[in-house]
Amino acid sequence: MNKTNQGGGTVIIGEYQKQYTLDSSHVRLQFFPHLYTMNWDQCSILADYFASYFAICFPEKQHKQLLSTISYLVNELFENVLKFNVCGEVNVAVTAKPQELIFLLTNQLEQSKVENFSSLLQNLISQDPLELMMEKVEENFADEASTASGLGLLSLMADYGATFGWQFVDNNIADTVTVKTMARLPIE
Asked: SS3 for 185?
């Protein structure tokens, strides 16, 4: 799935399942980063927490790999959410299914940044992740000031088979849009 307009000020990019709801066995954390400064160390602490919590949901032989993979995924997603969040709360929820982990993150994005951000996301999901990752590495090498490469998401898609989807919803908060990110990590 690429980009679809769902009407009512809602746009979906990628593999976002609008009707998906978390079942009763999930962990949800809510942050208010506008009330205090969050730094990157806190992102890794959160990532390690989720990794430790959910790795034990799967066979023990997978724990070591899952600790690393889950931590990497949550860290990438949470850093992106904090980087672009403009106000309000940030929600992070994770649920374990027999063959996958599902991550849902919600934040607020400035309306003026939606077009560029959605264009970047559309580009990331519409091309081969490995090929695009190599292009982005070369671009970043040429322009060290670049901050919107998407390398973390591309690595998760290419190396771990993660799929992503985003829902952009117009809301009643002035000049902002709610962004809901869904990541699905297959567990083999």
From this structure: strand
Q: Are 154 and 164 in contact, with CB atoms under 8 Å apart?
A: no
Give yes or no for a contact between 90 and 46, defined as CB atoms under 8 angstroms apart.
Answer: no
| Residue 166 Ramachandran class (φ > 0 left, ψ -120 to 50 alpha, else beta) | beta
Domains of the chain and CATH, by start: 3-16+26-186 (3.30.565)
What CA–CA distance (Å, rounded) separates 185 from 188?
Answer: 10
- Judge contact between 109 and 80, C-beta under 8 A: no
pLDDT at 36: 67
**What would the pLDDT profile of 67-84 be if each residue is shown by its tens digit?**
999 999 999 998 888 888
Cβ(122)–Cβ(2) below 8 Å: yes
Phi and psi angles of residue 8, each rounded to the nearest 5 degrees, phi first = 65, 30
Indicate the DSSP class of residue 35: G
Q: Using 50, 70 and 90 to split pLDDT, how confident is the model at 181?
A: very high
DSSP 66-116: HHHHHHHHHHHHHHHHHHH--SS-EEEEEEEETTEEEEEEEEEEEGGGHHH
